[in-house]
Write a structure and sequence with these properties.
Radius of gyration: 17 Å
Strand order of the largest sheet: 1-2-3-4-5-6-7-9-10-11
Number of helices: 3
CATH class: Mainly Beta
Order of helices and strands: HHEHEEEEEEEEEE
Number of strands: 11
Largest sheet: 10 strands, antiparallel, barrel
Distance between the termini: 21 Å
CATH architecture: Beta Barrel
Strand content: over 45%
Shape: globular
Structural class: mainly beta
Helix content: under 10%
Length: 226
C-alpha cells in the first residue's frame, strides 16, 4: 500500500526531495511511526478580536490563542486504518509554551469521493478541510486549504469562504542545516492573519503496530462524511 500522499500525487511524488519522500511515504502497512522534535522560531496569532475564535478552537485542539518565540514542540505521525476502512495519518502537535502545553491535532485521509487529501481537524473531527497538495520546485511539500465543512451528529454544512480560515503550509528539507523546516499561515479575507508558526525539527522513525499508537494522538470521534 502506498501512502495517502503518494497515492494523491502520483508521479509528482518523485519530485519531492528524498528526505521529504521518507517523511510522507509511509503507510499503515509499513509498521512504522515518526516523531519529530524541534523548535518553533515563531508562533503568532491574529489581532485581539480573533481571541474568542482561537480560544474556542483550543478546547478541541484546533488552533490556540498563545504566541511566542523559540517554542519547543513535537509532531507525531502514526499511520493506521480507521473504523471506516480508510488509510489515516495523525498529525499531533505539542507546543511547550511559557505557562502551558498547547495541542493542535488533525488526521488526514485520501478521499476517493473528492479525489483529494481531506484533513480532519481537532479531537472530534468536526472540521473537514479539503487540501490542495503539490510539490514545489525545491522538492518541498505544500498544502493549501480549499473547501471546509462542519460535521456534528446529523448536522453538516459547508463554511462560506468569507468565514473560513485559509491555510498555507510548506514543509521542506534544509540541506545546509540538515533538518526539516515548516511554515504555516492561517488567514481570513476579512480578519487577516489568524494563526501561524515557523520552525525546524528532526525526525525519529521507529517500529509501531496499530496497538502501540498512543491514545492521546487518536481522535475521540471519527467522522464518516468527507
Amino acid at each position: 500500500m502506498t501512502s495517502i500522499y503518494q497515492h494523491h500525487l502520483g508521479e509528482d511524488f518523485d519530485r519531492l526531495h528524498p528526505m521529504m519522500q521518507k517523511r510522507f511515504g509511509f503507510s499503515s502497512q509499513d509498521g512504522v511511526a515518526q516523531v519529530g522534535s524541534g523548535t518553533m522560531e515563531t508562533v503568532s496569532r491574529g489581532r485581539l478580536f480573533t481571541l474568542p475564535f482561537l480560544m474556542l478552537g483550543s478546547t478541541r485542539r484546533i488552533l490556540f490563542p498563545d504566541y511566542g518565540t523559540n517554542v519547543p514542540f513535537t509532531v507525531s505521525n502514526y499511520a493506521y486504518v480507521d473504523s471506516f476502512g480508510r488509510e489515516t495519518i495523525t498529525w499531533s502537535r505539542r507546543y511547550k509554551l511559557k505557562r502551558r502545553y498547547r495541542c493542535f491535532d488533525a488526521t488526514m485521509i485520501y478521499s476517493e469521493q473528492r479525489k483529494a487529501i481531506v484533513d480532519y481537524l481537532g479531537t472530534h473531527q468536526h472540521l473537514a478541510v479539503v487540501l490542495d497538495c503539490f510539490v514545489d520546485d525545491d522538492g518541498g511539500m505544500n498544502f493549501r486549504g480549499a473547501d471546509q465543512r462542519f460535521y456534528e451528529h446529523f448536522v453538516g454544512f459547508k463554511f462560506p469562504r468569507l468565514f473560513s480560515g485559509n491555510a498555507e503550509v510548506r514543509e521542506w528539507w534544509n540541506e545546509e542545516q540538515d533538518r526539516y523546516e515548516i511554515s504555516v499561515r492561517v488567514t481570513n479575507k476579512v480578519f487577516g492573519d489568524l494563526f501561524g508558526y515557523r520552525g525546524h525539527f528532526n525526525l525519529r522513525e521507529f517500529s509501531c503496530t496499530r496497538d502501540e499508537i498512543p491514545l492521546d494522538v487518536m481522535p475521540i470521534r471519527e467522522e464518516r462524511r468527507e
